[in-house]
User: Fold this.
Amino acid sequence: MPNLADPLQQAACKKCASTARRAPRHSGFKSQQQLGSRSRWSSLSEEIEIFSKEELFKVPILSYIIRHLGAIPVSRQDEHKAGVILRTLLEILSRGEDILIFPEGSRSFDGKLQPMEGGVAMLASHAKAPILPVCVKGTFEAMPRGSSVPKPKKIEVIFGRLIDPLDLPDDMKEKEKRLYVLDQLEQQMKEMMLKLG
Assistant:
């Protein structure tokens, strides 16, 4: 079982993230750059595996940047590829390595928190891996969805409390656990966004 409570307080974009397996918000493109740089994370802990939608790998300059960050392409359309990615993520977690996941699924159009996707809770539950919520403020303002040039903006990061599926009662059904984890993640993200203003 992975030890995810190591001294890494990783983050994600203005949106909140979580991870000990990280799950950050995804409000602006700069989020992935701010949170995804392997060299940035490696100064805090071990390397983090980063996954990005495969369409981003078709954009010439962006493809170069995210490949340099160590991103792995993910298909959001192909169920077979999604299954392979899921198995890959579970394997990474089983080795005790960290992954960075944006639990909202895609970048925000307005900088506000979007509904959480269930993948992060499912992974945490299956891998018995805690989630470290992280909120990064300023990435939406620096490079909102649809913009092509970043603006110089202050970026702030705040870390939440670990959400550990092992802390939940054994008699709780798997679906209830996943819903509880998602609810806790969303609550913490909202709290962190309020703190950051």
In short: Residues 16-196 form a domain with the Glycerol-3-phosphate (1)-acyltransferase fold (CATH 3.40.1130.10).
